[in-house]
Structures are given as C-alpha cells and as structure tokens.
C-alpha cells in the first residue's frame, strides 16, 4: 500500500479528521474568574470553589469554552492569592482539594476547560521554602535572591540596588534572621524566586505536573517577565537601573528604567521548558492539548518571543495586551486598526491570535471606555480571528464599583496615599459579581462582602439581563452563537478603519457567508459604503447582530453601499448569499 493510499483510507474511515481539526484553544472563548468575587456559597462574603462549580452551567449558557481562575491556593492573601504559601494546596477560604476535584469533574461533564493561575515569579514569605531559605538551610538557601546590601560611610545599611517594587518602595527587604536583603518585585510578602537555581526550576516544573495530574487543561502564567533579573557579577553584586526623569519619587515604580529586572533574554526559554512538560504530559496521558497563557507586559516584539522560536514551541497564548495598553477613550478607528493589524502582522507564521480588553488588574471596560462602548468591545473581541478572553462581569457590562479609601484592600493602593489611591487601586474592578437584583446581588447569603457590592447591581445583573432581549448579556450570547459560523470561526480577516469614526472587520471563508462587524466608536451618526471598504462584496447584507443602540432588527436587509450607524452603535452584518 502506498503512503497516499493509506491516507485516503484513513480519511475514508474518518480517522484523519481528528488530527486535522484545529486545536480547541485556537478559537476558544476564555472567561477569567476572580474566585473571591464570583460566587460565595458559605456566607463568609468571599467567593469560593463551590461557587464556581455552582456557576459552571452559567459559563455554558454564555458559550464559554474555558475558564482561567485567579489563584485559590494557600495564601496569607497579602496580594489576594498571588502570594502563595503552598503551591499544591487549596486555601481553606476557597474550600478544599475535594471541592477542587468536584469542580474539575463537573467542568469535564459540561465540557468547560479549567485553567489554573500559575504564579512562578514569587511565593509568599510564609511559604516553607522561604522560611527555610531565610534560615539559611543548605538546600534552600539559594531558592530566593539574597544580598547583604552595603554599609555606607555613615555606617547605615542600604539595599543592594535602587530597584523599585511594583507596589512602591525598594524591591529589597531586610531580613533580620538571615541578616540579608531579599528581592521582591511585588509586595514585600512576595519574595522573588531565584530561577538561576536549577532546583527551583524543578520545583516549579513539579508544581505544573501536580496540577496536570489533577486534571487542569492548562495554566495562565503570572507576571512572567519578572522571572529573571540580570545575573549578579563576579562579586555577587547587581547594577542600579538608570533613572527615569518623569518622577523624583524613589518609591514610585516608574523611578527607574527597567533594564535589569524585567524582560531578560532567558525568560522566554523558561516558558519553552514548561511547554515541554505539557507536551510530555499529553504524550503520556493523551487528551486534548494543554495550554499556556502567559502574562507579560513587554514590548510587542518581546511578547512574540513567547510564542516560541525556530526550535522550540512556547505559549499558545501570550496575552495580547495591545488594546488594553494602548487604546484610550479618544482613540480613533485608525488606532484600533493599527493595533489589531500590528499584532496579526508581527505574529510568527502558524501561530494564533488572542484578544483581551479587561482583567482583574484594570478598571472595568465600561469605566475606561464608557458604558456606551461595552457591546463594542465584546463584539470586537468575539469577531476577531483567534481566541477571546473575557473578564467575569464584562459580559454584563459591569462598571467599576466605588470603594472608599477606608474599604480599600489592594496592596497596590494601600502602599500609597489616600490622595491618589483611585489611580492605583484594582479593587473597583474586583467587586462582587452581580447575579441578581436581590440582596448582595445574589453573590452571598452573608451580611457583608470582602469588597462592597457596586451600587448599580439592580440594573446590571445576570437575572435582569437574561430578560432584556438586547442586554449586554444577550448580545454576548448571540455573539457566541455567531462564532460557530465557519467564516467567523476559521475564515480570513480584514480589519480596516473606514474613517476616524468607524472600524470594520470582515470575516470570510470561501463558500460561506461574508460577515462584517462595524463599530461606530463615537457619538455621531455615520453612513458607510462598504463597497468602498472591501473588494468583491455581494450587493446585499442583513443584520446578524444588533444592540440596544440599533434601530434595525436581526434579519432586516440592507444595501452594501449604504449602512447607517447610530451613535456608538456596533453591529454584525451577514451577506444574504454565500460566496
Ligand atoms: C500579576 C497579577 C496581579 C498580581 C501580580 C503579582 O500581574 O495579575 O494581580 O498582583 O501579578 O503576582
């Protein structure tokens, strides 16, 4: 039998179809859950894993393929779970390992994939590894970055360098016990691991293996660009970072230009190593591809390195923060067009795009861009090629909740001053999820919540929005249905600014309908001749998705040469014929 005969035979038997199918994550709709604020089942005012399990059906209802859960592992909660004291234990605040297992098994029944937040850059200072390292135990002494600092002419001890922590102040903390400084790029209760120590790398590899065994489908890798710092010189010293001139405050993160503490050349290789672990696990255990989503706020060229290089695969999803980082309230359609196409153009051959506009570290989309643009961003994220990542509550158009200085708990804000705490606080985007218009928004049966419930919960909540035909929630659900259309799922994409005001995204797969999403970014009425924007369009289209701004209905037909958009209106059109 020739090789080709074998191939035809296999196709005939339907066996090649599985191999040929695109991996699940490529066009997945990801949903980030911030477990503290998602659903509380034990009445303590903090969300828990049983709450996530209870709401998995909701994820199914809104068409989610996979959910990335912010950390729920053992932690003293100095950074609300991003300070882990045991990388293999569930924190009792969130439940037990049994609860986790129940959640995974229910998710499997519903076919919702579970992605764990993997926080490799640092542990908690309560972590056993840190305690042993601080005690100078031989095996652990180099698990973290330690340095005695220097004694100046006046006999005062000063830190090894001018490096600043993301949460303000020196990135070095003096440890009385060990009589040395340790490095912490975030909170002083989050000491940085020493990734130049192969034992630490193996510990972290084992953390990945542990959770893979427990059935997770992949990892969101936290703050990866901080993993390495420049290597110490022959005397064990580190260089100062150059100053930035925009602030004189040595405690402000922007005080130094980050050339030694982030984006070191070794870092993407760490991710390549982890990808190997995932591949090996899959080779040994089968099942769907396990994935890595990496968080790096690096220049775009560096982000691209995380996809892999000519010899190694990296993360399937290096988060695309281009829209989050660069778009602002006044950005025009050319700016949107540039940012989207720039990612697509710079992406290495054969890789897949991802789109994200909100998360637990950023103000809510509707608060940054205006409540009138909530649908715009949901439609954009879900009709661009690749996968989308939605932060919980964005499907409802939740806005920032008001959190007074007294109620503020985020260390990024608490380490600063009352005068500008709102600029730094991440609490407003973390207020409890709105499930209903009942007491405490249906989030808890308890009397109080860890952050206040936002005051607008009676209008913006799951229960109410289910019943309003063009609510943000129903627009989101409709979008998920459209994503199953071959042109949107696997078709080509053309992204064009029609004018300063209107952005257009065309999706098409030969032999199928042409889909065009249109976004009127500002508050004027706009008329568009689509034939001037894209070549070879059929003469007629119909509305495939409208929003509450629309005066048309789904199914209404229109001429390609004249599409009218109301202020802030976003729509999806479908050609009336396949081409
Ligand atoms: C990431 C997380 C953020 C956390 C930080 C330190 O940026 O998204 O919430 O504070 O890492 O772990």
UniProtKB/TrEMBL annotation:
One of its GO terms (molecular function) is alpha-1,4-glucosidase activity. It catalyses: Hydrolysis of terminal, non-reducing (1->4)-linked alpha-D-glucose residues with release of alpha-D-glucose. It is an enzyme of class 3 (hydrolase). Gene3D superfamilies: Glycosidases, Golgi alpha-mannosidase II, Oligo-1,6-glucosidase, Domain 2. Residues 32-430 form the Glycosyl hydrolase family 13 catalytic domain. Keywords: Glycoprotein, Glycosidase, Hydrolase, Signal. GO terms for biological process: carbohydrate metabolic process. Belongs to the glycosyl hydrolase 13 family. This is alpha-glucosidase. The lineage of its organism: Eukaryota, Metazoa, Ecdysozoa, Arthropoda, Hexapoda. The gene is Dana\Mal-A4.
């Amino acid at each position: 039998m020739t090789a080709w005969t074998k191939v035809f035979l296999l196709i005939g038997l339907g066996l090649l179809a599985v191999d040929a199918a695109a991996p699940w994550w490529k066009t997945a709709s990801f949903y980030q859950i911030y477990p503290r604020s998602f659903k509380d089942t034990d009445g303590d005012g903090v969300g828990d894993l049983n709450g996530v399990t209870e709401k998995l059906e909701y994820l199914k209802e809104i068409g989610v393929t996979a959910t990335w859960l912010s950390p729920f592992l053992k932690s003293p909660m100095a950074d609300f779970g991003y300070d882990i004291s045991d990388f293999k234990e569930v924190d009792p605040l969130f439940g037990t390992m049994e609860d986790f297992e129940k959640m995974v098994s229910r998710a499997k029944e519903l076919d919702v994939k579970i992605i764990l937040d993997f926080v490799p850059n640092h542990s908690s200072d309560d972590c056993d590894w840190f305690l042993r390292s601080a005690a100078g135990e031989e095996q652990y002494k180099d698990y973290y970055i330690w340095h005695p600092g220097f004694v100046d002419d006046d006999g005062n001890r000063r830190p090894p360098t001018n490096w600043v922590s993301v949460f303000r102040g020196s990135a070095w903390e003096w440890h009385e016990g060990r009589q040395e400084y340790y490095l912490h790029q975030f909170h002083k209760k989050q000491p940085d691991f020493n990734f130049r120590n192969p034992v630490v790398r193996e510990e972290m590899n084992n953390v990945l293996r542990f959770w893979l065994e427990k059935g997770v489908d992949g990892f969101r890798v936290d703050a990866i660009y901080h993993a390495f710092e420049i290597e110490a010189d022959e005397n064990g010293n580190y260089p100062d970072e150059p100053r930035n001139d925009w602030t004189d405050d040595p405690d402000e993160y922007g005080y130094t230009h980050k050339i030694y503490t982030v984006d070191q050349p070794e870092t993407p290789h760490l991710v390549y190593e982890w990808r190997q672990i995932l591949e090996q696990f899959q080779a040994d255990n089968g099942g769907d591809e396990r994935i890595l989503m990496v968080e790096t706020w690096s220049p775009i060229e560096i982000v691209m390195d995380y996809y892999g290089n000519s010899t190694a695969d990296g993360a399937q999803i290096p988060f695309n923060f281009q829209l989050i980082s660069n778009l602002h309230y006044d950005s025009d359609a050319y700016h949107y067009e540039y940012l989207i196409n720039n990612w697509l153009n710079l992406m290495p051959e054969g890789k897949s795009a991802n789109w994200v506009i909100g998360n637990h570290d950023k103000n809510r989309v509707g608060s940054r861009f205006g409540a009138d643009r909530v649908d715009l961003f949901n439609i954009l994220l879900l009709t661009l090629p690749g996968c989308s990542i939605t932060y919980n509550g964005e499907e409802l158009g939740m806005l920032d909740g008001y959190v007074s200085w007294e109620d503020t708990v985020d260390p990024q804000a608490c380490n600063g001053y009352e005068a500008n705490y709102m600029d730094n606080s991440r609490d407003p985007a973390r207020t409890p999820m709105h499930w209903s218009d009942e007491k405490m928004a249906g989030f808890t049966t308890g009397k109080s919540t860890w952050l206040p419930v936002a005051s607008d919960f009676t209008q913006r909540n799951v229960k109410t929005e289910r019943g309003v035909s063009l609510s943000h929630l129903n627009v989101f659900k409709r979008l998920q249905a459209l994503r199953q259309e071959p042109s949107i799922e696997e078709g080509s994409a053309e992204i064009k600014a029609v004018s300063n005001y209107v952005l257009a995204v065309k999706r098409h797969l030969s032999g199928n309908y042409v889909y065009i999403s249109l976004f009127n970014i500002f508050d004027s009425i706009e008329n568009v001749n689509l034939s001037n924007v894209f070549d070879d369009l059929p003469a007629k289209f119909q509305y495939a998705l409208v929003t509450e701004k629309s005066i048309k209905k789904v199914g209404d037909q229109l001429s390609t040469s004249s599409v009218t958009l109301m202020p802030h209106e976003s729509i999806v059109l479908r050609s009336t014929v396949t081409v």
